[in-house]
Amino acid sequence: MTLSKLLMLLLAIAVTVCVLLPQPALAQAGAATYKAKCAACHGPEGQGKVGPALKGTSLSNDQIANLLTKGDDAKKPPHKKALSGLSTDDAKAVAAFVKGLK
Ligand code: HEC
Fold it and tell me: Which residues form the domain of 54?
């Protein structure tokens, strides 16, 4: 193998690691937010309680994050309006966590 091919291979590995790693880290940050802000209504495992079950949701990460930070007029409270005390990053993290619920 030539040096340049080796470098390309290393670069490819580095890029792959960077793309794959942040997701679980993000979901982990979301776990704490979920427990504090969502579990009471959606259940600790996302199995549903007052609110619908979230595990296996067909919504995308972005749809979930948007619902949390912007609210949706067509939804029932508390999601008619943006949830208070939730930053965009918190919303993304918690959305990643919700998508990981099984
Ligand atoms: C006060 C109770 C309550 C809290 C707190 C709450 N939810 Fe909800 N959630 C609901 C209810 C009720 C609905 C159903 C709204 C509707 O369908 O009109 C819902 C719907 C949703 C939906 C849409 C589900 C679907 O399939 O359409 C998502 C996603 C969601 N909640 C995520 C969250 C997340 C994440 C948090 C925490 C940041 C959270 N909710 C906090 C009660 C709550």
Answer: 21-100
